[in-house]
Automatic annotation (TrEMBL):
<keyword id="KW-0399">Innate immunity</keyword>
<keyword id="KW-0963">Cytoplasm</keyword>
<protein>
    <recommendedName>
        <fullName>FIIND domain-containing protein</fullName>
    </recommendedName>
</protein>
<dbReference type="Pfam" id="PF13553">
    <property type="entry name" value="FIIND"/>
</dbReference>
<feature type="domain" description="FIIND">
    <location>
        <begin position="1"/>
        <end position="176"/>
    </location>
</feature>
<dbReference type="InterPro" id="IPR025307">
    <property type="entry name" value="FIIND_dom"/>
</dbReference>
<keyword id="KW-0391">Immunity</keyword>
<dbReference type="InterPro" id="IPR051249">
    <property type="entry name" value="NLRP_Inflammasome"/>
</dbReference>
Length: 176
């Protein structure tokens, strides 16, 4: 797997040019893009829509990424997760939300779940994020996540102030 060169546009946004087919990992977010051809990829973190997950019996398990690229250039996404090995025994509770402006939300079953990432085929681009079944909380209340928490207070621009909380996986150095 190759590391993509990331040019941060603004906080939580990335842009890079994939030189051709292959798998490329963002050194900042841990996202992996499996490319079918050369293409420019733009992505940013966005807020989860209010109420959409709750009505589907899901809760966020990570950041929501809005991804833009030429159609068909990305065949798979590997979304980073912070689950422990014990929690992965119950991986049927972990899936990927695919949120579009037109169709709302669909839930994609993972192709594969490994210690660091959840892999899905990409039907078409929009917003993707990891979700847990709400029922998971009843079975896993004592399971922990691997990682480190980063807190960022946004510059004052309105009321109330916004605090961003970022959970980095255990295998990503803080310097990155």
């Amino acid at each position: 797997m190759e590391n993509a060169v990331i040019f941060l546009i603004t906080s939580g946004s990335g842009r890079f040019m994939c030189p051709g087919p292959g798998a490329f990992q963002c050194t900042f977010t841990g996202l992996v893009f499996v490319m079918t051809r050369e293409a420019e990829v733009l992505y940013r973190t966005v807020l989860w829509p209010d109420g959409l997950l709750e009505s589907a019996g899901k809760t966020p398990a990570g950041m929501l990424f809005n991804i833009k690229c030429s159609e068909g250039a990305i065949s798979q996404l590997h979304l980073p997760h912070c689950e422990t090995k014990e929690a992965l025994c119950f991986n049927r509770f972990l899936s990927v939300a695919h949120i579009t402006d037109d169709d709302g939300m669909s839930i994609l079953e993972p192709m594969r779940i490994i210690d660091t990432h959840v892999s899905v085929n990409v039907p078409h681009l929009s917003a993707f994020g990891l979700v847990w079944d709400t029922i998971r909380s009843f079975f896993h209340k004592k399971l922990t996540l691997k990682g480190q928490v980063l807190l960022f207070l946004r510059p004052p621009s309105g009321v109330p102030p916004i605090l961003d909380v970022l959970l980095l996986q255990e295998n990503i150095p803080l310097s990155e």
